[in-house]
User: Fold this.
Amino acid sequence: MPALRHEATLLETPMIKSDTERLHLASPGLEHEAELFKLHNDPLVRKALFNDVPQSAEDVRKWLDRFIAAWRKNGFGDWMVYEKTPGGLVFVGRCGLRDYEDTNNLELAFSLTEYGAGRGLGPEAARFAITHALQNSTKEKIACVIAHGNVRSERAAKKLGLRYIDDRWYQHRFWQYYEMTREEYCGLQDKQITRRTRMQCDTA
Assistant:
């Protein structure tokens, strides 16, 4: 991996950390750049998100800058996700919500490494991230775009309560578009959110 030098143009916000039953989550900072580089070049992630094109250090810096900027703007965003193991924390991916284009919706996005995928860690991280974002915003809908053929993400989205709506043009190609309202999510909260991630959904 090339040396990662980041000439920061954005002021960082204080890191926020939290835990679910199996996961530790942290808001992104410059210290996470190497982990994000590995994630975006993980075979599973690269195929699903980047058409199997290797991601450069510069590509990763742009993503990290966007993540940090979103946190500064909204007070929520993408989280760096770690699995708790007997040997310590193991980085498994990222998960969070951000503004969805020019709409009043939030976009849920999660990407896990091959090691982290397929064990329910994605939905666990997503439940926490959705609850945190709804608690800190007034937006009414959660959207998710999924590449065709990404069966794991389709399964995870349905498990979270998201419904397939249609195919939509997004970032230069057609994606499957899923959606869920705040009311629908909060109605599922008692059944789906683990005890440690339970929060009040209603905004102040």
Observations:
- Residues 17-193 form a domain with the Aminopeptidase fold (CATH 3.40.630.30).
- The chain has a mean pLDDT of 87.
- The helical segments are 33-40, 43-50, 57-74, 121-135, 151-160, 182-192.
- Residues 108 and 198 are 18 Å apart (CA to CA).
